[in-house]
Amino acid sequence: MNNNNISMAVIRRLPKYHRCLGVMIKNGKKRISSKDLSEVIGFSASQIRQDFNNFGAFGQQGYGYNIKELYNEIEKIIGLEKDYNMIVIGGGNLAYSLVGYGFGNLGFKFKAIFDNDKSIIGKKIYDINVYDVNILETFISKNKVDIAIITTPSDVAQNIADRLCISGVRGIWNFAPIDLNVPEDIMLENVHMVDSLMTLAYLLNDKK
Amino acid sequence: MNNNNISMAVIRRLPKYHRCLGVMIKNGKKRISSKDLSEVIGFSASQIRQDFNNFGAFGQQGYGYNIKELYNEIEKIIGLEKDYNMIVIGGGNLAYSLVGYGFGNLGFKFKAIFDNDKSIIGKKIYDINVYDVNILETFISKNKVDIAIITTPSDVAQNIADRLCISGVRGIWNFAPIDLNVPEDIMLENVHMVDSLMTLAYLLNDKK
């Protein structure tokens, strides 16, 4: 999926680095060695050095990493220096959770919510308008939409995904418990909550 | 974390097998070769055979897999043949999403919700009672709780996790955007939504 050699495993560790370093900055910490970072974050020190080498070397032998510099660099790598316009398809409980979550602080901005339920169309979820899903394509053609979030029931999720792809949306964040088919140039991230819960069930049984 | 040799990578693929095979059963399909399953699920045929070999061989050379048999076996491996009692700490939007999600069909049963907000204590979220978080330990001592779900703000999540662990809860499903410290014998699964969103942001930039 990537056009360079950074593995998805490395990429998926970046947000955790971002979160840990953010906490350190908040606590007034300035520098950290890969050994100390390792203890906080739970990855090995050599893993950490390898990960950072993927993006150029940020540390100095014997001096460790400048936390703020490293944090800023990871923000740039992830792409957090800019804003992302997001829409949500499906105006149920999950839409409330997501809009109220605070992603805006990271630059992820909610622009519209779409549903087919006449009783909520025209209303707002927090300060975001709920529109008829019939105007989804029109909205996308007139507004820059970077990420569309699918929170619909499973049985309509693929149809919504198809409509989004045809409309030119390149990023889909899917919460419907279904494996969507999208073209290769569409970036799809799934939050399959059931998968996580099942993993937990397995682990609970495995330990008995 | 596991007391046998099955890797977390294999375990995390099980729910996807479960979901895909479930769809096939619903569509009336009886048998499938690892090659055909590979096309549907997106793992290689040899990966699929390897995964299933971890738990004993379910397929017959040339006949493929009996879908219903395989599905039942995966249910047993994950531990879905029994019920799990769950509580939620934090009675906000996410609690609504989770209680309303439909996990009950899989055997994951909500028993109670806890919050410190007097305006919701004593009310219900769907049909589940919201209790004062002060009685968390008492509730756990009197009721079998398999999984506790943390949906609180980050700044109290570690304290809640500590209280759960001391009370004897062995499974924690954490939605707070923080990396919790728990003893090794506690099974912790995180749904870090921000991590998933950041990964999507990275991928969107990477493709440009």
Would you mind describing this structure in some detail?
Two copies of one chain form a homodimer. The first copy, chain A, is α/β, with parallel strands linked by helices and 208 residues long. The first copy, chain A, has eight helices and nine strands. In chain A, the strands form two sheets. A seven-stranded mixed sheet of chain A has the order 5-6-4-3-7-8-9. In chain A, strands 1-2 form a two-stranded antiparallel sheet. The model of chain A has no long low-confidence stretch (mean pLDDT 92). Chains A and B meet through helix 1, helix 5, strand 9 and helix 8 of A and helix 1, helix 5, strand 9 and helix 8 of B.
Annotate the secondary structure layout.
The structure is a homodimer of 208-residue chains.
Chain A: H1 8-26, E1 31-32, H2 34-41, H3 45-53, E2 65-66, H4 67-78, E3 84-89, H5 93-99, E4 108-115, E5 124-125, E6 128-132, H6 136-142, E7 147-150, H7 154-166, E8 171-174, E9 187-190, H8 193-206
Parallel strand pairs in A: 3-4, 3-7, 4-6, 7-8, 8-9
Antiparallel strand pairs in A: 1-2, 5-6
